[in-house]
Queue: 3 jobs
Job 1
Amino acid sequence: MNRLATTALLSTGMAAGVAAIAKKRFDNVTQLQGAYHPADSSRTNAVFATNHFAHGTVGNTVNFAARAFHAFAGDNFSAQSGTFFSSPAAQRHMSMAATPHNNASFAQREHAHFSALHQLHPFDLGAFAGASFKPSQRVAVMNRVQQMDLGRK
């Protein structure tokens, strides 16, 4: 087997392994979802803070992204996302209907949180990633989740 074929085979195997781990994390955190009690700043807490919103709300749409990020990264580089999503202001906003205006407004608020955190902690990879994910990109993801009806029902 030549080097290219070996590299391709190893890459495929690694991707399958990562996908399996991500699927297991996604399933685990989905099963853990129950009554919400704010606990900490972790990404797991971000999932719990968004899991109770009705279908068609900003929070329900955001929950899909929170679960997906948790599936791939666990609580690594969470950049105080649990603190943000469990805040009373975010909870009020996420209870609103998932309209283009409400989605854009929440995306601005979320981006402002991560941008401020990145200013305070420029070497925090989670804050950097959150600040790099622009409001327009967040809205595009939210709209796609709604379009594909991927939120919890």
Job 2
Amino acid sequence: MDRLSLADIYHGTNERAIAIRGLLFTIVLTPVLLLPTPAREIVSSEAIAVAVGCGAVTGIVLSVCLEGVRIDADRSDVTVAIATLVSTGVATVLVWILLPREHLSTFTQFAIVFSWSFSLTSATRHIVWPAVFGSAGARD
């Protein structure tokens, strides 16, 4: 297993570089998501259990299912930015409609668990698995 330089991690397109970038993004994003006080409040143990369970399952499933999906280099950055903004707006409106006001903090907890399960699953599959079991399971 060859070593990755910082330039490979930043610009690399192989699965290991993408997994490391995702893990670093999750490490940076977690404290930012926990800054608002409502994000640290526990509204009910049942709501937290559902948010954590759904976040973990969704993160693992999407990590496995979206492995081969890449945005084409031919696409415009503007198109990708607009699609991201629209999908974020739609998701925000759905959360406001579906979650009662007192349970909105559970969405932040869902997002944290989702990002950790997604990035840890990806890192396990592309970094830990090949290191432990050899390159036979690697997909670089």
Job 3
Amino acid sequence: MTIAALHRRLRKIEAARARPNSFFLAWGHTKDDAFTVLAQAQADGLFRQGDAAVAIVWPDPEPMPSARWVSFGQDGGADLSDRELELIASTGRTEAAIRERERAIAAQEDITGLDDTDFYIRHLRRTSKDLTMDLRFLVSHEVPEPEIHHAVWNGRSYDHCQCDRCLSGETALLPAHTRTMGVRNAWLARYLPGEMLFT
């Protein structure tokens, strides 16, 4: 057996050992590029027909990650960078919203005034196994906690940050939290009125 043949054989064995909570992940600088990488990986035996596989656009100038099997679960996700996780989640959310919009159009609903967030929330309501947790996560993603410059104890008293951002209230504890709560309440009133997620 040649080295090349052995290499192909090992890759096929790797694909055959894919775990149930795994999927094959391919990146590309464009969607077409990503699907080309995915098709080549299948031709090389890295995954088989019927295996979970996704193709995602890598929009960053940094080097693109390699196509590979990734796993989620108790120990899964450790081989993914934060940026990869962010892009996977963003792509999944975008595609879920597109599907929900298409469902609404097919049902001849009036979707005037609805945006992608409305449709993603519909998707969560229809598919989530823990809706409250998923909605809370969505809120924290849409309205993240503010950056705070905390006071530092010097042994006798607290030294409060005197940077321009803190002096303007942007990163000072009370003004930053007050502003964030206002933004969060407005978001909740728009997208999730009456949900009482944080009581």
